[in-house]
């Protein structure tokens, strides 16, 4: 959350970033008026920000509608290359995927979501179109999210839970805070999270936390998704064992 009273921050820069975030899968090509409505700015301010981003190469326009350009990927280049996502982590996930027989993903905590930063796809196996690098998923109804939440320090976890609308959860997910905390305690005790039809109907998932070895704090989770009923008890147990090994290898790269 931005502290607007902090004299060392640039509110204009923050507004520009919010303009970039207005572009998503649903709103790929939008007008200045639509951007202004999404980010809560007046049209004149929005126009100046959009034109600046256009001149810097982050946006392109066609008959009054704007889209982001590949230039925006430069913003993530330092993160991807600095952590060896493609060179180091991706091969670790590939090996785990081949051992488990399922596509494996690595998600990291970002604000109150989990975002996939690496994913290895096995063409012959089950997957979801929504799983891709950069995809964001909520923490509560997903195995990856719960594996992260369960191992956060109590203050950070409670801060996230305070912002959750438990009444808005589907009937497949725990709908009160006390029951959800019990579920997180179970995840912490067993060292992994599992969900069945809680985020997507008829889809199960297993996830194991990944820790920063230097800080001994959770930074993300490795996970698999599968059709509900696809894995028997022994296959689930084997998958968890291999995911724990994968998580340890990913952790060693940080």
From TrEMBL:
Q: Which InterPro entries match?
A: GAF-like_dom_sf, HTH_MetabolicPath_Reg, Tscrpt_reg_IclR_C, Tscrpt_reg_IclR_N, WH-like_DNA-bd_sf, WH_DNA-bd_sf
Q: Which UniProt keywords apply?
A: DNA-binding, Transcription, Transcription regulation
| The keyword Transcription regulation is assigned to this record | yes
Residues covered by the IclR-ED domain? 71-254
Q: Would you say which domain of life the source belongs to?
A: Bacteria
GO biological process assignments: negative regulation of DNA-templated transcription
Keyword Transcription regulation carried by entry? yes
UniProt domain HTH iclR-type: residue ranges? 10-70
One annotated GO molecular function is: DNA-binding transcription factor activity
Give the PANTHER family listed for this entry: HELIX-TURN-HELIX TRANSCRIPTIONAL REGULATOR, ICLR FAMILY, TRANSCRIPTIONAL REGULATOR
Instruction: Quote the protein name from its UniProt record.
Output: Pca regulon regulatory protein
Which organism's genome codes for this protein? Pseudooceanicola marinus
């Amino acid at each position: 959350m931005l502290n607007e009273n902090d004299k060392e921050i640039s509110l204009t820069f923050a507004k520009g970033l919010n303009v970039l975030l207005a572009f998503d899968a649903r709103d790929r090509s939008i007008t200045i008026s639509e951007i202004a409505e999404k980010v809560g700015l007046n049209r004149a301010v929005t126009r100046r920000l959009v034109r600046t981003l256009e001149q810097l190469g982050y946006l392109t326009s066609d008959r009054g509608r704007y889209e982001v350009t590949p230039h925006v990927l430069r913003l993530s280049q330092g993160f991807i290359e600095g952590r060896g996502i493609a060179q180091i982590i991706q091969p670790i996930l590939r090996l785990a995927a081949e051992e488990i027989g399922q596509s494996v993903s690595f998600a990291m905590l970002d604000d109150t979501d989990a975002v996939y930063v690496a994913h290895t796809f096995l063409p012959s196996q089950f997957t979801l179109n929504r799983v891709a690098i950069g995809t964001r998923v909520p923490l509560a109804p997903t195995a990856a999210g719960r594996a992260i939440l369960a191992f956060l320090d109590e203050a950070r976890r409670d801060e996230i839970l305070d912002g959750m609308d438990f009444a808005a959860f589907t009937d497949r997910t725990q709908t009160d805070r006390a029951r959800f905390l019990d579920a997180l305690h179970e995840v912490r005790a067993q060292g992994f999270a599992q969900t069945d039809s809680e985020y997507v109907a008829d889809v199960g998932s297993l996830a194991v936390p990944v820790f920063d070895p230097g800080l001994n704090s959770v930074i993300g989770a490795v996970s698999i998704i599968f059709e509900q009923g696809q894995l028997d008890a022994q296959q689930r147990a084997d998958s968890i064992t291999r995911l724990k090994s994968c998580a340890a290898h990913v952790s060693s790269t940080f």
